[in-house]
Design goal:
Three copies of one chain form a homotrimer.
Chain A: H1 18-23, E1 28-31, E2 45-48, E3 62-64, H2 66-82, H3 110-129, E4 140-145, H4 150-162, E5 166-170, H5 177-180, H6 185-192, E6 198-203, H7 208-215, E7 220-225, H8 231-245, E8 252-256, H9 263-272, E9 279-283, H10 292-300, E10 304-307, H11 311-317, E11 320-323, H12 335-342, H13 349-354, E12 360-362, H14 383-403
Parallel strand pairs in A: 2-3, 4-5, 4-6, 6-7, 8-9, 8-11, 9-10, 11-12
Antiparallel strand pairs in A: 1-2
Helix pairs in contact in A: 3-14, 4-14, 6-7, 8-9, 8-14
């Protein structure tokens, strides 16, 4: 893509002119087509502003604020001088995010996950240390929820507001008067995209998010589509493991509870297969065992896995015990099977006592009694921190989809 | 109204002193009672601020921000020098909006419509080119919806937020605990007006908006009151015709579908009667024909109209084909009549093929199958642009009611 | 608590160095452990910023904005020089609020009430005279409503937004998917506290607010918990009496209507007992008389009270006639008793005619016909002003809980 910029581009193989740093504090348009490595397909002019507010992205231009500009200058200035090209130049500050939408866990490769997690760490700092971040000031997110999920909705809305963005809420889009009158999802999306800059959608039908993304000219994030995908949950789970254990390669994870129906554990197993030397233990009542498709996939990727009926033994070996809720609604009339299944693997202080000191307990929440309340006070109970990490992952994704790296 | 201003007023018949332009960038109070034409009844002192935030309007003062001030200076400065007085001085930047509330389409004359449309065009630019407009910063809009209408609600809330304003939402005011307990609409309004600066109300009863406006000390916008009025829809329809066709005088419009029950087409016909050489074609199944009151009104205003059963012929002649949905609920038990009516006039690629190149298809949405999906990709399919225009019209009305021209 | 501050603390018994005043306009950390009186337990370093936005509160630091800093300097500067120590040093600008949560009326003593009312007066000025206050910019309030109460919710949300804060709304947390799935209130709170800075909760169970506050690491405000407490209503009632009558000591208050079930009148009677020479009249149908616990409490505090069946006589003597709604749902099948009770004490123009000129009529709203509509226009009808005062009280409490005095 040709640069539309009239200012002379500075070449990668020359030191960045000193005056550039100064210019960063004004407003200018420049091309960095030559600055980034040849792997980069990106050569949009950048619009840099020192204002607290962004200028709306010009066509073919990338918007950067002062902080980003400083980071960009520092990083790229050094790179230029050293004539080095980072492998992850695709994730360089100022670049466009590789994804237009976030629809399913399969979209993310390991490098992209690492880069997103780095942004999520920045988001932790923003949320904790600064007041009123303005990164997404002027942006409007529409939460289009066709089934209620207050936890997920609040998490996304908090993420948007923590970054200075605004929110339009539809808590019960299924009764959206238009949907009730027979309007198609596509028509609804074409209307809502006119009112907002990004759509976060939860739907009761598998595949709905993909249809929405195919229609929308603005980014769509899947916040769960029925029995289908819930990619931000999958990302926050992997992020939590990295944050808690400090690594993803070489970890041992016990997945416990309803492994047949839980999309959470299925997505997690899928994403863990991208890392090296991972060992997965499946601990579940017989009626809700992990299905063969995931086991086969893990085997094909060389991931070691094992089924076990002994939670204590697994807990003693694992870095992560990932507990899940046995869902009553999956058992229909067979409440006897439900009662048998749900009482079988409880994480309590006995389990804690056998776990390693550095290991953690995770849970996607809500929990009923599959983790006893007296576990909460133990520092290895990571599930509320995990919920909080959902905020950082969603902040990161909103930032990436709306303003790029 | 006497000026409460202590600064000397500058006279219309003298050139504006040069220093005035400079003063605009500070904060001062001045009178423009003599500046504007004699038709103007407005002579409030103006409070001008260079801050990004408005100063709350002083009693008897008009608030202007820097941008408005610049426009005011330029326009009026030039006017002063040329000793010219524009006809539309009532709509001059800084003047109060003529309406206290927006309740029904009948409130708008042609000049006011033109002036509002000019503001709506400004709003398009603001929405597209600038980030985080602050025109309505500090203002709070309450959306008081006694029946759900997510499309309309999101459109108003997006409009408010695009201008920097804030929103209090009540999606289901009918179950408003107080209304459920028997509180009158008037009492509810007296409470809500204490929490907000403007009320956007949708109600299931015709006339409710008028009652609310009669009670409230703050502006009320009618976002639809039952079978009554929905004036912002009427305005956005006319605005869309002007934007798409480039004119309103001399146009030919085909109104298609349910003309008996659709308040949309009734209001549109009413507003089109204000323009010159308009020709209206009514195309509808017999059971839902346009009622005599509108036909008589058009005749009395000298508007040419014609009923036709031939959609193809009408489509070939019209600038605008305005399709509407046949509403099943109007037919009660007679589903046979409904099925017959709804299948009769479908806008499809055949209709498109006969339409003129510059003509457009409009629809108030939601649509079912009265416009086939394959029409969407044609540039003459204007209905999603029309929905978007609702945003600009609502931005314009919010701006006008809260801060004036 | 030891000061964590590295800057030298200035001593109370020395005049504040002149340079301090200047420093206030920059950014610095100082200790005021010695500045405040010995009664104060507070010795946190203060973070002072001239920015329009707050810096996020550092651990062990108190955040002040420029206006607060000026007030702090002026007041304390003078105090220092005069070596005087005010009694209410606990309420000095910059100090932390004494309460971590607002759960019940019993938390407030008379001095605290006075100090809160002073802040509420400031809030009136902010709401009326300035646009877009930024006092709570960057703060996020979650409204967690387990039963709908639009009036209370809008009041809190308006309060937050009037101070520049942001809001996450859950209008129907009872159907909160997680609560519906059996999640405990405690788990919900642990999740929501991760997304927000303060929780405003309404619940259908008495004691729920206390449980939430015990769990949350952020402030919780009780917006009504079933038959339990509704402390912000109690505060706004007392505030309204002070604003309308000009005093609280020596007043005569007639409580009228359903005194058995109304938590409003019970809390009000309780709070009035903190003032001197108060006289309370109970006027109610026999079936809904004030219960003995409150009567006994008043007697134990030396508050004069009297039951009366003569509304006219009471109205002629009182400063405040506090009318309440007779709630049909309290009478079950006995609609005959309900009809008898509800028609018995109506405040109408006859009652008005006998009231003193300075006296006022109050009502917690919604009202049905226990106050006739023709009373509304009389300046002594204070109930809509009372509703508005709820906004100021809630602004004050949000400000106090989030940024302190």
């Amino acid at each position: 893509m040709a640069s539309t910029c009239s200012l002379p581009a500075f070449n990668l193989h020359q030191a960045m002119p000193t005056s550039k740093a100064t210019m960063c504090y004004g407003k200018f348009l420049c091309s960095y087509s030559n600055l980034v490595s040849k792997q980069s397909v990106q050569s949009k002019p950048i619009f840099i502003s020192t204002d607290s507010t962004y200028a709306r992205v010009l066509p073919n231009a990338i918007s950067m604020n002062r902080r980003e500009c400083e980071r960009f200058s520092l990083r790229n200035g050094l790179l230029c001088k050293a004539l080095e090209i980072e492998n992850n130049s695709l994730f360089r500050v100022g670049n466009k995010f590789q994804l237009d939408d976030v629809i399913e866990a399969q979209q993310f490769d390991r490098d992209t996950l690492s880069a997103i997690f780095e942004v999520a760490r920045d988001m932790e700092k923003i949320e904790k240390n600064s007041f009123g971040s303005q990164i997404l000031k002027g942006y409007l997110m529409a939460t289009l929820f066709y089934e209620p999920s207050t936890r997920t909705r609040l998490s996304f809305e908090s993420a948007m507001k923590r970054l200075g963005g605004e929110v339009l809420t539809t808590e019960n889009a299924r009764e959206f008067s238009s949907a009730a009158k027979g309007e198609t999802l596509e028509d609804t999306i074409r209307t809502v995209e006119g009112y907002s800059d990004i759509i976060v959608m939860r739907h009761f039908e598998s595949g709905a998010a993909r249809r929405a993304a195919a229609t929308a000219s603005i980014p769509v994030i899947n916040a769960g589509d029925g029995p289908g995908q819930h990619p931000t949950q999958a990302l926050l789970d992997v992020y939590t493991i990295e944050r808690e254990i400090g690594k993803l390669n070489g970890i041992k994870v016990g997945l416990v509870g309803d492994l047949a129906n839980g999309r959470t554990v299925r997505s997690l197993a899928y994403l863990l297969s991208k890392y090296l030397d991972v060992k997965i233990y499946f601990v579940s009542p017989d009626v809700v065992k992990m299905k063969d498709d995931i086991k086969d996939y893990l085997s094909s990727k060389g991931v070691a896995w094992e089924e076990s009926g002994d939670l204590m033994e697994v807990a003693s070996k694992c870095d992560v015990v990932y507990q899940t809720r046995i869902q009553r609604e999956r058992f229909g009339e067979r409440t006897d099977l439900y009662e048998e299944a749900r009482g079988k693997y409880i994480v309590d202080r006995n389990v804690l006592s056998i776990m390693q000191k550095h290991a953690v307990i995770m849970h996607p929440l809500p929990r009923l009694d599959e983790i006893t309340v007296d576990v909460d006070e133990d520092p290895r109970a990571a599930y509320f921190r995990q919920a909080k990490n959902g905020l950082y992952i969603r902040m990161a994704l909103l930032k990436l989809l709306l303003v790029g790296w």
